[in-house]
Amino acid sequence: MKILFCPLLVGSLLVSGFFAAPACAAAEPELLSLAALVEDTLAKNPELKFYEAEIAAAKGERRGAGALPNPELTVGGGYKGVRSSAGQLLGEGAAWSVSLAQPIEWPGRLSLRKAIADKQVALAELGLAQFRYTLRQRTGALGYAVLAAQQKAAAANEIATRFNTLRDVLVQRDPAGVTPQLEIGILEGTALTQQRRASDAAIEELKALAALNQLRGVPAHTPLKVAGELPPFPAARPLAELLDAARTNNFDLRARAAELEKQGFKVDLARNERKPAITVAPYFSREHAGDRDTQAGLSLTIPLGFNSAAKGRAEAERARLTQAEASLGTAQREVERKVVEAALQYEVKRAELARWDGDPAVKFRANAELADRHYRLGAVPIATYLEAQKTFLEVLETLTDTRREAWEAWLELATLTGLNSKD
């Protein structure tokens, strides 16, 4: 069932009275189908920029990881005086020197830094893909929550209106005796109960719409109407196939595996860095103190490994590698558990839906309308009439909740296994 929805008006009537109804009348709700809502959210979500910037930052670091350290230019100048052993000045003049030092990395060190930077880029790209996929699933779940709340609110309002109308008819008949008066009171009380149900459903719809607007990067009170129906449920897949897909496609496991590979490169790099880098520095100097003295040559600088800082870094990176291995194993078991639970939830809810012939809400709505007509004619007692109305609402709520739970279980499976990913 599709109904027009104005979140500002519902907020003013049911939540806090903060929003005004005239503002709602001026703003026409945007109408989006479930599919269009997902694409609109993917296009407008502001958090996507964070992940895109993360990729740009990782690529920037990658460009610097493969470069040699910059050479260092040293220029010096001053005054030089030459004296004999007796203190007699033999000559004086300017003295200056220039040298260019270039650190030379140990073989394999630059390639390891490049590999680490490449893995960081891959992790950033995987993070963006995971966010887009999760955002798609979250939007679909919220979109259906809006549709389900609309159906519940519409049905509850329908029954409440029916009770109020019937109550007005009974009052106009000027009933005599206790039984008609009791029936009027029962109808009034039941109408209030159904109006409470409608209010609760409207609040659920408002909350889901506010969450959708947040994902779309617009103010939470922006008018929005979701149209469409829930797509048919796919057939359940074998558990072994789901587990294999999760081990291969699960974003969290892929990220942890990439992190493990990156940590392995870090261990190799820490071992490599225990070997000293060599700095090559050609130099040239000249002095003018009586005679002209010129020197040119090449110097080599090799750090001496007297301290254990490099060894400590290597031990720390190996410990982090062990942590990454343990974290990956724990995440695999956690994902497998969630896949089993979601698959069981989906199979059970889908089996419940398969036991119902057609749309039971249509059948029980017809029963409620039939009971209403015959109660007005005096053919059925009020207990039968009330039971028919309540059964219609309970069946509709049960059907809607079961579909929502099955849909959420399927979305959870899709998220865990990466099935049906469009990214």
Offer a few descriptive terms.
423 residues; Outer membrane efflux proteins (OEP); four-stranded antiparallel sheet; two-stranded parallel ribbon; 11 helices; 14% strand
Could you describe the 3D structure shown?
The protein is α+β, with helices and mostly antiparallel strands. It has one domain (7-70, 107-275, 309-417): Outer membrane efflux proteins (OEP) (Up-down Bundle), CATH 1.20.1600.10. It is 66% helix and 14% strand. The protein is built from 11 helices and 6 strands. It has helices at residues 7-15, 21-26, 34-44, 48-65, 109-172, 178-216, 239-249, 251-272, 309-355, 360-376, 382-417, and strands spanning 30-33, 72-83, 89-104, 224-227, 278-289, 291-301. A 4-stranded antiparallel sheet has the order 2-3-5-6, with no helix packed on it. A two-stranded parallel ribbon has the order 1-4. α5 runs antiparallel to α11 (382-417) and α10 (360-376) packs antiparallel against α11 (382-417). The protein is elongated. The chain starts with 6 loop residues before the first helix and ends in a 6-residue tail after the last helix.
The appropriate CATH architecture is Up-down Bundle
Count of spatially separate domains: 1
Helix content: 55-70%
Level-1 CATH class name? Mainly Alpha
Write the layout of secondary structure elements.
Blueprint: H1 7-15, H2 21-26, E1 30-33, H3 34-44, H4 48-65, E2 72-83, E3 89-104, H5 109-172, H6 178-216, E4 224-227, H7 239-249, H8 251-272, E5 278-289, E6 291-301, H9 309-355, H10 360-376, H11 382-417
